[in-house]
Structure formats: structure tokens, C-alpha cells
């Protein structure tokens, strides 16, 4: 069976995806349970990890575009999609936290829809949304929880 036609994500992808959630979950919880003096550092680390993951997720689109037919109109779109997440992560890190965290939040939410677009156009495996949806929900929820803690004034 061709890997793009499988309907269930590989177990290794699921396991690694879940492992990748650990810094998001601990960072979001850390904003509420660590001593106040450490919360700014926790948020900085959460945002840095989120920016790294955005770059990784963008690279997935780059790799998929490299596999696409060069004559396809969709490959250039996907190449463009590949560079936007790391750029947004970089911009977010250069902004004050009150502005940077919402940028990262929106970038992750939008990236999920870019992933769905890639699947619908045959550029990503059919199983990809079943992996990305729960991971994206947890990531966006964790970023929202961290964002809420900043609105609450830590």
C-alpha cells in the first residue's frame, strides 16, 4: 500500500507527535503553577519551542512540495506555505510577549488548515489530518492557556 493512501497514521508518528506535546503541556501548566519569578522564563521557553515546531511543520510542507510534480500549480503554493510558519515564529519571538504569543497561536491554527489543504490536493497523506487534528487542538489549547495567564497578569 502506498503511504499516501493509508488512512491511519503510523504508530511512530503518533508516538513522536504525542512526545512533542510535552513542552506545550508543561509550559502551559507551568504558567499557572510555577513561582511568579519563573513564569516569564517559562513563557519564553514555551514560545521558543513553539517557534521551533512552527519551523519543523513548515519544513514538512517544503518536503511534500519537493515530492510534487514540478508542473503542478500546487507545488509553488506549498513551498510558500512552508516558509510562512517559521517566519511567523521568528516574528513572534521578536515581539513583546503580549503580541508574540497571539501570533504563534494564530500561526498554529492556520497551519492546521494549510495541512488540510495539502491533503485535499493530494500533496500530503490521507492519514495526516487524523494525526494533526488532535495534536493541533492540544497545541492551540496550551497556547491559549498560556495566553490567558498573561492576560491575567501571571
UniProtKB/TrEMBL annotation:
PANTHER family: TRANSMEMBRANE PROTEIN 69 (PTHR15887). This is DUF3429 domain-containing protein. InterPro entries: DUF3429. It comes from Halopseudomonas xinjiangensis. Keywords: Membrane, Transmembrane, Transmembrane helix. The chain crosses the membrane at residues 12-34, 46-64, 76-93, 99-119, 131-149. It comes from the Bacteria. It holds the Pfam family DUF3429.
